[in-house]
UniProtKB/TrEMBL annotation:
Smr domain residues: 744-818
Residue spans of biased composition, Basic and acidic residues class: 714-727
Function: Acts as a ribosome collision sensor, splitting the ribosome into its 2 subunits. Detects stalled/collided 70S ribosomes which it binds and splits by an ATP-hydrolysis driven conformational change. Acts upstream of the ribosome quality control system (RQC), a ribosome-associated complex that mediates the extraction of incompletely synthesized nascent chains from stalled ribosomes and their subsequent degradation. Probably generates substrates for RQC. Endonuclease that is involved in the suppression of homologous recombination and thus may have a key role in the control of bacterial genetic diversity.
Gene behind the chain: mutS2
Alphabetically ordered keywords of this record: ATP-binding, DNA-binding, Endonuclease, Hydrolase, Nuclease, Nucleotide-binding, RNA-binding, rRNA-binding
Binding site for ATP: 343-350
SUPFAM superfamilies: DNA repair protein MutS, domain III, P-loop containing nucleoside triphosphate hydrolases, SMR domain-like
Top enzyme category: hydrolase
Protein name: Endonuclease MutS2
Assembly and binders: Homodimer. Binds to stalled ribosomes, contacting rRNA.
InterPro entries reported for this sequence: DNA_mismatch_repair_MutS_C (IPR000432), DNA_mismatch_repair_MutS_core (IPR007696), DNA_mismatch_repair_MutS_sf (IPR036187), MSSS (IPR046893), MutS (IPR045076), MutS2 (IPR005747), P-loop_NTPase (IPR027417), Smr_dom (IPR002625)
């Protein structure tokens, strides 16, 4: 099943093929382009579209891809297969074609999985390195057989050169000798009948013995081969003949090798032509800003689709100038299958008709279409077009008769196609659905009496509805506009016309029938208003009502369009305000976060200052003998620092966290509680609890101690109620300094363990009187080293620190403690 050639001609598909041929690279692919026809099989159409899409993607990524220096050498190869001898230039073209095939095969084989069809085509390209090598070894770039083609040829050519030199030397000596100076017409050597001769005056013929080969037109000069060079001439000619025979033998041998591989070489040219056609389709698509349409499966007997199977978005006729063409939106199927386009002449009805048909043909031929997404097309088994004036003088057919003959032929073909039994597919299955068809009728029912023409048009449209085809028709008849309005499956459309400028806009509006605008145009041109009114009175009342109805629909459509535009403007304003509010809210949130961060930093700075003050007080408190008066003063300063720390913490809680519920009246001691140690009369913080032993580890100043839980009492929350320690009358002795190593190994620790354990070690080292300690943390990722040095940077007992240098490098940090 194929699209009739008449439809291709009517829809100007020939012009598309001509333009496509300009993008091909050699004659074989040009022939394919000029003979390209639309396919009617769904799988084949999808394969062609996929191949074009892959070729376009490849050219967009690697524009230099091509078939190289390939030539259509099929006729020459067939001649060699029949025993013919090819000349050197033709053999070089064959070698270049085979090299191009091998290079393209290699390039396509490296493509990624996005190019399956190109890879498959590339894999079919043959490789004949032995043929290419034989040609390149024997034939030069200029097509001449090389001396290296055979040892015999090299020897013969050497002998030819030697014989030629001897012959010329002998002749040169003769023409310059004094004995023949008067006999020669002029002292030159020339060629006659393939033999070297000298020009001798006819009057001095007897002075030069030899063979006369020619004479001048006047007879005054004879061209004589002197007897002294006859043998030299003979020898030179014999060697030339032997050389020519050897050259023919070499060309014959290579031609025989080419003929033996004729089928493979022809297959290579065919595949190269197919690939070049795909590249030409891709280049044409890029040049026309085309897109790959969605190819859908649709038949008239299928359930109603959710989306129209035939949809063109901003479609452009590819043969019209890009700067003047007006895009159209058009769809068929679903709610209606027949579109009736009305409007004034030269308004673009026929262009819309041809655009729909031509783009359908292009898509089924594997071409991308000049439109926008979304665009989708089914695969039509039949496409018929009756467009234009086909009046025939020879057949004595009027315009109406010509159109009617075409319409009858279309209807008969569709009837026969639907009644014909289906053929089995590749799997042997039968598809009993009616074939998909697209019918395009221009000026349906025109060329005869309007009443009869409109009646015939209605009957034809009704028959198309029964056949289930997709159809587009143009008309002027008002009766058909009303018929389309009231008939399910038929939809009105119109091409717009600007009455003010008396020019068509070429825009297609589906759902609104067009008006003829004849009276409006006449009035705009200045016809007497009285004549306009008189003409209006002659119009049939029903037709006038239809025209008035159309005008009302157009006004309502314009009002709806204006309302829609206003709604779009309001929506755009709303989105703008929404975006502005969202930006302001985001800015406010960022500002709030910045303020909270600043507040946190401020509170943390106050807390750090309070902690540093506490550390200084503890260090002063650690002297071995403390007087009662100094101890009381230190206790007051400790209490004031604790109160300041408590106030800072309370400020942070009030500013950044909801108020916590009051703790229960009595609860067990927990890690983190501030307690009073009765045995030493000091306050500390619980860092660990052993429930089995009934003991707790308490951090008191810079040292830790283990005491029984019974000796601990939680301090009250309010500073005013806090129980203060009253030092005894005697002096206080702190625990003796521990025995601490100067080296502290932290390798393998987690970062979270460093702060507390390193703080305890530094306190112990300071109490032990160490001036400098060596902290081993290892190199690793550097995270542990950074944590250690962050602790050292803020620790009150550390005066300075540095890397280990020779003593461990960056894996060790040396910390120097403050003096006691």
């Amino acid at each position: 099943m194929s699209i009739p050639e008449s439809s291709l001609h009517t829809l100007e598909f020939d012009a598309i093929r001509d333009r496509l041929a300009h993008y091909t690279a050699f004659s074989a692919s040009r022939e394919l382009a000029l003979s390209l026809t639309p396919a009617t099989d769904l799988a084949e159409v999808r394969r062609r579209q996929a191949l074009t899409a892959e070729a376009r993607l490849l050219l967009e990524e690697w524009p230099e891809v091509s078939i190289g220096g390939a030539r259509d050498v099929r006729r020459a190869v067939q001649h060699a297969a029949r025993g013919g001898i090819l000349d050197g230039a033709t053999l070089r073209e064959i070698a270049a074609t085979l090299q191009s095939a091998a290079l393209l095969r290699q390039r396509l084989s490296r493509l990624d999985p996005r190019f399956p069809h190109l890879i498959d085509l590339g894999n079919t390209l043959p490789a004949l390195p032995q043929v290419v090598e034989a040609i390149e070894r024997a034939i030069g770039d200029d097509g001449q057989v090389l001396d290296s083609a055979s040892p015999t040829l090299a020897r013969l050519r050497h002998e030819v050169r030697v014989a030629f030199n001897r012959l010329h030397e002998r002749l040169q000596s003769m023409i310059h000798s004094s004995a023949l100076a008067n006999a020669l017409q002029e002292p030159i050597v020339t060629v006659r009948n393939g033999r070297y001769v000298i020009p001798v005056k006819a009057s001095h013929r007897r002075e030069v013995r030899g063979l006369v080969h020619d004479q001048s037109g006047s007879g005054a000069t004879l061209y004589i081969e002197p007897m002294a060079v006859v043998e030299l001439n003979n020898r030179w000619r014999e060697l030339q003949s032997a050389e020519a025979e050897e050259v023919q033998r070499i060309l014959s041998a290579i031609s025989e090798q080419v003929g033996a591989a004729a089928s493979t070489i022809i297959s290579a040219v065919t595949t190269l032509a197919a690939l070049d056609l795909a590249f030409a389709l891709a280049r044409y698509a890029i040049a026309t800003r085309s897109i790959a349409p969605e190819i859908v499966e649709w038949r008239p007997d299928d359930p109603p689709p959710a989306e129209p199977p035939f949809r063109l978005t901003r479609a452009r006729h590819p043969l019209l100038p890009a700067e003047t063409v007006v895009p159209i939106d058009l769809w068929l199927g679903g709610e209606f299958s027949i579109l009736l386009i009305t409007g004034p002449n030269t308004g673009g009805k026929t262009v819309a008709l041809k655009t729909a048909g031509l783009l359908a043909l292009m898509a089924q031929a594997g071409m991308q279409i000049p439109a926008d997404q979304p665009s989708r097309l089914p695969v039509f088994q039949h496409i018929f077009a009756d467009i234009g004036d086909e009046q025939s003088i020879e057949q004595s057919l009027s315009t109406f008769s010509s159109h009617m003959a075409n319409i009858i032929r279309v209807l008969q073909t569709l009837d026969a196609a639907q009644q014909a039994p289906p053929a089995p597919d590749e799997q042997g299955l039968f598809d009993y659905r009616r074939p998909a068809a697209l019918v395009l009728f221009d000026e349906l029912g025109a060329g005869t009496d309007p009443v009869e023409g409109a009646a015939l048009a209605r009957a034809i449209i009704g028959r198309l509805l029964e056949l289930g085809v997709l159809a587009i028709a143009t008309t002027h008849y008002a009766e058909l506009k009303a018929f389309a309005y009231t008939t399910p499956g038929v939809q009105n459309a119109s091409v717009e016309f600007d009455v003010e400028t008396l020019a068509p806009t070429y825009r297609l509006s589906i759902g609104i029938p067009g008006r003829s605008n004849a009276l409006a145009i006449a009035a705009r041109l200045g016809l007497d208003p009285a004549l306009i009114e008189q003409a209006r009175s002659f119009i049939d009342r029903k037709e006038a009502q239809v025209e008035d109805l159309l005008a009302g629909i157009q006004r309502e459509r314009n009002a709806a369009a204006a309302a829609l535009q206003r709604a779009e403007e309001l929506r755009a304003d709303a989105e703008k305000y929404r975006d502005r509010l969202a930006a302001e809210q985001q800015a406010f949130a960022a500002e709030r976060e910045a303020a909270l961060a600043a507040a946190r930093q401020e509170i943390e700075a106050e807390l750090r200052e309070a902690r540093q003050q506490l550390r200084r007080l503890r260090e002063e408190f650690r002297s071995v003998n403390i007087s009662r008066q100094w101890l009381e003063e230190a206790e007051k300063r400790l209490a004031a620092a604790a109160e300041q720390s408590q106030q800072a913490a309370e400020k942070l809680r009030q500013k950044h966290a909801p108020a916590a519920p009051p703790p229960p009246a009595e609860r067990p001691l927990q890690v983190g509680d501030t307690v009073h140690v009765a045995s030493i009369g000091l306050n500390g913080e619980i860092v660990a609890i052993d429930e089995e032993d009934g003991t707790a580890t308490v951090q008191v100043g810079g040292f830790r101690m283990t005491v029984k839980l019974s000796e601990l009492k939680r301090t009250k929350a309010q500073a005013s109620d806090e129980r203060r320690y009253t030092p005894p009358e005697r002096s206080v002795n702190l625990p003796s300094a521990p025995d601490v190593s100067m080296t502290f190994d932290m390798r393998g620790w987690r970062a979270a363990e460093v702060s507390d354990r390193l703080d305890r070690y530094l306190n112990d080292a300071y109490l032990a009187g160490l001036h400098q300690v060596r902290l081993i943390h290892g190199k690793g990722t550097g995270a542990l080293r950074q944590v250690v040095r962050d602790v050292l940077a803020t620790h009150p007992l550390v005066a300075s620190f540095s890397s280990g240098g020779r003593d461990g490098g960056e894996g060790v940090t040396i910390a120097t403690l403050i003096e006691r």
